[in-house]
Amino acid sequence: MIHFSFFEIVNILGTLSFAISGTSAAMRKELDIFGIVIIAFVTAIGGGTLRDILIGRLPVAWLQDNVAMTVIILGTITTIAFGTWVTKLNYTLFIFDALGLGFCTIIGIQKGMELQFSPGICIALGAMTGCFGGVIRDTLLNEIPLIFRKEIYASACIAGGLAYYGLLYFQVENNLAQVICIVFIVLLRIVVVKYQWSLPSVYFKKES
Amino acid sequence: MIHFSFFEIVNILGTLSFAISGTSAAMRKELDIFGIVIIAFVTAIGGGTLRDILIGRLPVAWLQDNVAMTVIILGTITTIAFGTWVTKLNYTLFIFDALGLGFCTIIGIQKGMELQFSPGICIALGAMTGCFGGVIRDTLLNEIPLIFRKEIYASACIAGGLAYYGLLYFQVENNLAQVICIVFIVLLRIVVVKYQWSLPSVYFKKES
Amino acid sequence: MIHFSFFEIVNILGTLSFAISGTSAAMRKELDIFGIVIIAFVTAIGGGTLRDILIGRLPVAWLQDNVAMTVIILGTITTIAFGTWVTKLNYTLFIFDALGLGFCTIIGIQKGMELQFSPGICIALGAMTGCFGGVIRDTLLNEIPLIFRKEIYASACIAGGLAYYGLLYFQVENNLAQVICIVFIVLLRIVVVKYQWSLPSVYFKKES
Predict the structure, then answer these.
(1) Once rounded to an integer, what is the mean pLDDT over residues A90-112?
(2) CA distance A120 to B165
(3) B34: nearest CA in chain C?
(4) How far apart are the CA of B195 and the nearest CA of chain A, in angstroms?
(5) In A, which residues are within 8 Å of C27 by CB distance?
(6) Does the CA dihedral A148-A153-A158-A161 come out positive or negative?
(7) Residue B13 pLDDT > 90, yes or no?
(8) Contact: C33, A208; criterion CB under 8 Å
(9) Residues of B in Cβ contact (< 8 Å) with A64
C-alpha cells in the first residue's frame, strides 16, 4: 500500500480542491471537455508550479510522478458527473477555491521553511502558492481575478500565515498548527464573502 | 559546414513556423515593426521556454546560441516582405500554426523521453510545447486563444502523441514515427478546421 | 553599516522606480491597499524574475534577502502617502516607469555578461528585464501594455544597450558607460513621448 505523509495529504487535498473549483468555473463558461480539463489542470498546479520555479525545485513536482495528474483527472470527472445536474456551480466554485487556498498556503509556507527563508518570504510564497492557480483560472476565463475584487483574498492567506507562525511561537505542535491555519483561512474566506468585508480604502474620496 | 541533427532540424522548422504565424498575426493587427518582432519571437520560443523551465533545463536553449534568434529574424523579415502584398494573412497564420504545432509537439515529447518521464507526462510536455507559443501570441494580441475555441487544437497534439507511441510500440523507426506524427497533427488540424469538427459537449442542454 | 556595490545601487533604484510606477498605476485604478501592494510588487520584481528564471539563477534573488521587499514596501507607502493629494499620477507613473526601464535594462545586460552570453542575447535580456514588469502591471490592470502602443519603448532599451556596447568598445569606463546608458534611455523615453515619435510602419496603406 502507498503511504502518504501529512504533507502529501494536504498537497493532494489542495490539488483536488483547485481541480474542482477550476472544473466548476470552466463549466459555468460552457467550455468543451478539453477546455475544462485544461482549466482544471492549470488551476490545480498553477500555484505550486510558480513556487517551484521561483525556488528552483525543477523539474516541477507534477512532472515526476502521476499523483497530481491522477488526482486532477478524478476530480474533474467527478465534478463533471455531478456538475451537470448541480445548479449551484457558483457555490461549488467558491467553497473549493477557499479550501484550495487554505491547503496550498500551508504547502507554500512549508516549502519556504524547508529552504530556511525568512518568515516574511515564506508567507509570501504561501500566498503565491494559494492564489496563483485561481489568478490563471480567472484570467484564462476572462473574469476579473478574485484577487483583485474588493474582497479579502490574498490577505486571507497572509493572515493565515501569520496565525501559523503565531501558533508555532506558542509551541503548538506543527501538524495541529497547520490544520488550524487551514481552517482559519477557509472560515475567513466564507465570513468575508458572507458579510462582504473589505480592506480599508486609501483614497479620500471615490469618484468611480 | 554546420551539421544539424534530425532533432535540430525539426526544432528549427518548428521555430520558423511559429515565427511566421506570429508575424502574420501581428501584421493582421497592424502592429509596428517592433511589435511584430516581439510577437514573432514570443510565439516561436514560448512553448519551448515553458517546457525548459518546467523540466529545469536552464538557461533556456535560445539564450545559449544564436540559432533560434537568427531563424526568427529571417522568418519575420521574409513574412513582412511577402505579407505586405499577400492578402490571405489569415491562411498563412493558420497553416504555419498547424506546422509549428506538429514540429513542436514532437520536440516536447523527445525532451520528456530524454528525462525518462512517463508517456502521459511526455505527451503533456509535447502538447505544452506545441500550444503555449500560440496561447501567448493570442493573449498578447487580445484574441481568444485558439486553444479555447470549440475546435480540436491541444487535442490534436495529444492524438499525435498517442499515435507516435503507438508507432514506436509497433517497432516503427524513431525518425519515421516522428515524421508520421508531425504529418498527422498538421493534417488533423486542417481537416478539423475545414469540416469544423469539435469535441462532444458535457452539457445536457445549452443555455447560452 | 551595510555597503552596497554600484550594481546593487542600480538594482535598488530600478526596483524602487518600478514600485512607485506600479503603485501610481494601481492607485489610478482605485485598487484597495492590498491590490496596490501586489501590483507594486509584481511591477518591481517582474522583469528580474523572468530574467533569473530564463538564465536559471534560482531561487530568484528577492527570495533570498529582504532588500527588495523592504524597498518595495517603503516605495509603496511613500507613494500612497503623497499620491492621495498628488493629482498627476499619470506623470509619476510615466517618469518612474522610464527610470525603471533605464536601471533595469543595465542590470539585465550585466547579468547576461556575467554568464558570457553574446551581446545580442545580453541586450535582449536587458530589454526583458526592463520591460516585463511593466507588461505584467498593464496586463493585470487591463490596460494595453505600454510596449504595444505605437511608441518607442522596448526599442529604447535596445538602443540603450547598443549605446552601452558602443561606449565599452571605445574604452569608456564600465560604471560611467552604465550611467550614460541609463540617462540615455530615460531621456529617449521622455523625448519620444513628448514629441510622439514612433517606428516606421511596414504597411503600404493603413485601413484601420
Answers:
(1) 91
(2) 47
(3) C155
(4) 17
(5) 202-203
(6) negative
(7) yes
(8) no
(9) 117
Q: Do C202 and B36 touch (CB under 8 A)?
A: yes
pLDDT greater at residue C86 or residue A93: A93
Q: CB–CB of A31 and B199 under 8 A?
A: no
Cβ distance of A118 and C66 shorter than 8 Å: yes
Residue from A132, A164, A148, A150 nearest A193 by CA? A150
Please report whether residue A142 resides in a domain: yes
In Å, how far is A199's CA from the nearest CA of chain C? 7
Q: Is B27 on the interface with C (CB under 8 A)?
A: yes
What DSSP character marks residue C143?
-
Whether the pLDDT of residue B201 is over 80: the answer is no
The pLDDT tens digits of the residues spanning C156-196 come to: 899 999 999 999 999 999 999 999 999 999 999 999 888 87
- A60 interaction partners in chain B (CB closer than 8 Å): 54
Confidence of residue A162 (pLDDT cuts 50, 70, 90): very high
Question: Is residue A59 reached through a cis peptide bond, with omega within 30 degrees of 0 on the bond before it?
Answer: yes
DSSP B151-208: S-SHHHHHHHHHHHHHHHHTT--HHHHHHHHHHHHHHHHHHHHHHT--PPP--SS---
Split into its structural domains, chain C has a count of 1
Q: Is residue B163 part of a domain?
A: no
Task: Determine the distance in angstroms separating the CA of A165 from the nearest CA of chain B, rounded to an integer.
Answer: 31
One-letter amino acid identity for A34?
Answer: F
Dig out the grid coordinates for C197 from the structure.
Answer: 515619435
Tell me whether residues B202 and A36 touch, CB distance under 8 A: yes
Structural domain containing residue A111: 6-148
Residue A147: closest CA among chain C residues belongs to which residue?
A: C35
Q: Is residue C49 part of a domain?
A: yes
pLDDT at B207: 45
Decide if A102 contacts A160 (C-beta within 8 A).
Answer: yes
Residue A187 in any domain: the answer is no
CA B91 to chain centre: 16
Comparing CA positions, the residue from C97, C11, C108, C114 lying closest to residue C50 is C108
**How far is it, in rounded angstroms, from Cα B22 to Cα C83?**
40
CB contact under 8 A, C115 and B59: yes
Distance between A169 CA and the closest CA of chain B, angstroms = 36
Q: Which three cell numbers stand for residue C48?
A: 528580474
Amino acid at C43: T
How many residues are listed for chain C in this entry?
Answer: 208
